[in-house]
Design a protein that fits this description.
By secondary structure, the protein is mainly α. The chain has a domain at 461-541 and 558-583. It is 75% helix and 0% strand. Helix 15 packs parallel to helix 17 (317-327), helix 20 (391-404) runs antiparallel to helix 21 and helix 25 crosses helix 26 (497-506). The longest helix is centred in the middle third of the chain and has 32 residues, at 510-541. The radius of gyration is 55 Å and the shape is rod-shaped.
Length: 850
Amino acid sequence: MTAVVRPVANISALCREADAFLETGEFERATALYMSAFRTHGASTVAHMRKLNSSLSGVISTLEGWLDGHGENRPADGRNKGLAAVFLSTLSPNNLSATIFKMESLLQSSGQVCEEIFERCTSLLEGKPNCLPGDTANMMLELTRALACLVSESHSIRGLKLYLKMYKSDKSETIRLVKSRQAQHLPKIVKTLTEKVLHTHHFFEMNEDSTGSTKDKLEDEACSKVIEFLSALSPSSREVQELNAVHLLMTGRFGDSAQVYSSLLELCCSQTSSNGNPDPPERRAALLTGRAAAYLSAGGRSAEVCSDLGEAFQLHPATARVYFQKLFTGRGMGTAARNLLRQQADRGLSGFKERVLVRLDLRSTDGIELLDPAITLLRTLCHLEPNGGGRELRVRLADCLLLRGEHREALSICSQLAASQGQHSYQNTVQVLRGYARFLCDDHKGALEDFQAVIEHNAPHPPSCVRALCGRGLLRMTSGSNYLTAVDYVTASRLQPQETALTVRCLVPWNSRGLLVTVLVEQGRVMLEGAGEQEAKQRASGEFQQHQQEAQLKTPSKVKHRSGSASPAGVHSLALLLMDLQPGADGPQVLAADALYRLGRMEEAYRLLLSVGPAGPRAPILARLALLQLHRGFLYNTNQLLKKLIHCGDTSCLIPLLAVAQQRDRALLQTHCHSAAKRILEASGDEGALREAVTYLSIAIMASGGEAVDSLLERARCYASLGQRKTAIFDFSAILKDHPQHVQALCGRSFTYLMLSQQQECTRDLLAALQVNADVVAKHILALKAGARKLVCDWLHQFCRGSLSGRSGLCVCPLSRRAAQTGFCHVCSSDEDRLQGTQVASAARGHPAS
């Protein structure tokens, strides 16, 4: 109870009132009144209280309880507590509680009396040799002495040991007394004890130059007790928790250490999200590095170790490097940690490459995020190495950055590596990476120089050479040299197909990949057709066998290798690459099948075409299957496939196929289709049969290269029967272009002109045919219907009379006139016509030659 001080000092009244409370046993209220009186007039109050006999001890006990922290009505502020100490000292000189309180007050106000307080506490303790272990006063003396030593810098280690002694004797009471009686010194106590532990394990200090005497260091058991003591004093202190985590790590309790570190990191995240003020990056980097050390020591947590280290070096490299040197290198784990980081980086890069190679969409960038952890770990390794990392590490970092799309940073690293004096390791890799980085930065000239240097190197690195070939091919495509682009990619695909596919999927810009594949398919076809034409010419000139023998005798060389890029084997390698880049697309599969066919691997080509899948009848696939079945001698299957092809209505797909087909197979296809057309025409003459026959004949003509005279003649007749007379004339003319005396073609074209009522053209072709073989022409004319035959005879009659009179519009020679007369006589059907023909012939015989 707080006494109210009256303006008029009525000491006697206060003392009488206090006496009344004292008689009833209410010591708290009585003591409060006595204190009020003492504050007003101390001498009178003390004189009055000296008269009290046994009751005085109750007041003294109450005052001691207040000072020691007991009692329900203890003073609420330091002033009343100080008054209580003075009052108690007056009533009971040398009272221990009052003395302790005075020493505590002196320590709070000034640290210069530490030695005196230490000596005083020591003398008081020596004067109480038989104190009980649970005596509060005795414990307070010990704690006050410990605090005095701790505040005194020269005896801080002694104070720490005194605190530990008291903590071991009575943990709960020691913690209670320190928190209640030394609350103002608590931050100082925690800080000093923490520094002592850090000094013992000096590698946790950020200052490398910090020194201290060996005698001030604690043993491991003492450190454990100090940390336990600190945890009890300040359980919510993050510094203490971090110290605990460090000590657990040092003492081999790795799992517990990792849990403490995780709790601290979660606490940082929760506080950041709650108040919006993030912790300094240095602190989080230190915690992450510590947890990584605990995980690595515990084993089985490789991914977490690398993740924590990577994040730590991302947040604050300097702090992470210092803690790494202390926690890992200082404990002999530096090499293991570096190897683990390297393995994880390799695993991340391998995972990225595997994801890239199974992409279904060529333009996709799926899986690129897998490079981020690898890049982070490689950066971490570079931070751990002197001078920013070795050459090999920086090359790998530049490679990953380039794959990730960070081409400017990759260019910076590669330029530094290329400019290094006296270092030539990984030179090809550096140059090819710089070439791609330059290309992506639109420096095409510099990129070409780098690619060319790698390709022309005396001892090129195969993967780098493949990348350089792909890069040069890409530059050639942008400049319009499509054929040379294909040559580069053929060479690359023959060297290392998987590396070539990976380069196209990763290093070629996504918006250029589709165009690149289209160009390669087209130019692969050009190469294959060119090789077929060259072989056909060599076979025709009889030089093919000799050329093969010479090629086998020659030694391999770069020139031979590059000239072989356009061979069927090179095109096959290119086609396999394209099939890998665009699985399921027809173009690469058809190109691969044609290349296998050119290599003589018919069964493989057939199986490849069958594996294309039932996505509907596709003319290019059907055409090649038909040719292969014909080559194998399966005529029934050939017929069925040709019917499907004709049903598709796209026979133009045969043109690229026949450009690479062997002469033997082309002749087989021509004969087979011509025979099929003849069978169809013999079986039926309706319009549908005629059109089907025309299609077969067209295939036969394409297979012969336009030289199948019989097929041209039959197709021309079919066109004439279908009413497509001008088309028929075109086919007849095609025959007559190479065979001007072909009677069948001349007659056919003549009769077609007859249907078009073109008298002059009709007569001219008939005259030409009559000069070759009049009997055959006469048979053809006689086979005409009566009206057509009579019209032909009239036109011939007109020609004969016109030629005799000189009025004919045609250039007439005696041979033509004689042929017309002979033919006219052969075809005259009536007696009147025959008589007319005889007269004309007689007159002709007497006509002078023109």
